[in-house]
Amino acid sequence: MGHTLNVANSSASRLLYYIPDKISERALCIATVSGWDPVPIERIAPPFRGVHRHFLDQYSKLHLWTLDRKGFKGVVYVDADTLVRRNFDELFRLPWTFAAVPDVYVKPQGAYSGYVSAFNAGVMYIRPDSALFDDMVSKIATARYPAEQAEQAFLNHYFGAEVLRLPYAYNANLAIKKRTPALWKGLQEEMRIMHFTMAKPFLQGDYAEVPMDQLEKNAEKVARKKSAFREEIMEWLEAWKETRRTYGAKLAQCNAL
């Protein structure tokens, strides 16, 4: 994702939040070779049971609202399981407090089904405000929202009707292709960010790490298993090959740690 952001020629600063005791020196080195500035943050623990086990650290994302303390007036948050297709710097000019893209579900999940008004927190524009951060943290344990989706459900509850809902081009969830292929095809010319929600070529099994020298083989395996997304996975694979060529020496140094 970092390399494709560079190719898109974004003018934005690049901050990579990480929880120090959750990541190794090697992993942090790999994650920052494309130009990210690592920013350590304290983990915000889930306030109650029922959070999906893959989302147990996600409340820590709320620290984004404290970036006003570092002088930032606008922030675009992007999940790591994405690929940047086109520059999206226009988002920084939004005169809004919060913006995100509506979510899409292939199969019903609780109260959610199909195209919903609730947004996906994988791509967000926010206007940092430490006072808002303090207020959110004070309410995550008492507000009423579905526990499983962690901070995404809380943010939907907290911002509610105030959120500006962005076009799907800014968070092109693979679920769109599965549910409405014609819409996915129509998004191609405008797509800024592709979100690998339903097929993750960089992971194996249940979110297990893939050794760097096996990433290409793993991506091809995932493409065979999830053939509906083969074209997108192959696009990710080409981006990875270009990343490896561009930062090969630095990646090798990191991998040796």
TrEMBL record:
Taxonomic superkingdom: Eukaryota
InterPro entries xref list: Glyco_trans_8, GNT1/Glycosyltrans_8, Nucleotide-diphossugar_trans
Annotated SUPFAM superfamilies: Nucleotide-diphospho-sugar transferases
GO molecular function, one term: glycosyltransferase activity
Pfam families reported for this sequence: Glyco_transf_8 (PF01501)
Gene3D superfamilies: Spore Coat Polysaccharide Biosynthesis Protein SpsA, Chain A
Name this polypeptide is given: Glycosyltransferase Family 8 protein
Originating organism: Pycnoporus cinnabarinus
